[in-house]
Amino acid sequence: MKAAILIHAAFEKPGAIQSWCEARDIKLAEIHSYKGEKLKDVDAFDILFVMGGPQSPREYVQYPYLSLE
């Protein structure tokens, strides 16, 4: 199985999610949206984790990557 995790801030880490995936032999791909990275093919993954962050969806001017999601 393959999983992806969307990370929205530099201080966020996969932590327990990474451990959970490792224990189940699930390959975890990290997508750092705050760096402009994109999830290109959602169908390539069996599981999608979406992390939170300090930003609000209304702050799309300050965090332009939000409007791309």
What topology emerges from the helices and strands here?
Elements lengths: L1 E6 L7 H9 L3 E6 L14 E4 L14 H4 L1
Parallel strand pairs: 1-2, 1-3
Keywords:
69 residues; three-stranded parallel β-sheet; alpha/beta
Describe this structure in words.
The chain is of the alpha/beta class. The protein has one domain. Helices cover 19% and strands 23% of the residues. It is built from two helices and three strands, in the order βαββα. The protein has helices spanning 15-23, 65-68; strands at 2-7, 27-32, 47-50. It has a three-stranded parallel β-sheet with strand order 2-1-3, with helices on one face. The radius of gyration is 13 Å and the shape is globular. 7% of the residues are buried. The mean pLDDT is 86.
Radius of gyration: 13 Å
Structural class: alpha/beta
Oligomer: single chain
Beta-strand proportion? 15-25%
Rounded mean pLDDT is 86
- Helicity range: 10-25%
- The number of E-state strands comes to 3
| Tally of individual helices | 2
Number of domains: 1
Major sheet characteristics:
3 strands, parallel
Strand order of the largest sheet: 2-1-3
Q: Categorize the overall geometry.
A: globular
In N-to-C order, the SSE pattern is EHEEH
**How far apart, in Å, are the first and last alpha carbons?**
24 Å
What would you say about this model in short?
This protein is of the alpha/beta class and 69 residues long. 19% of the residues lie in helices and 23% in strands.
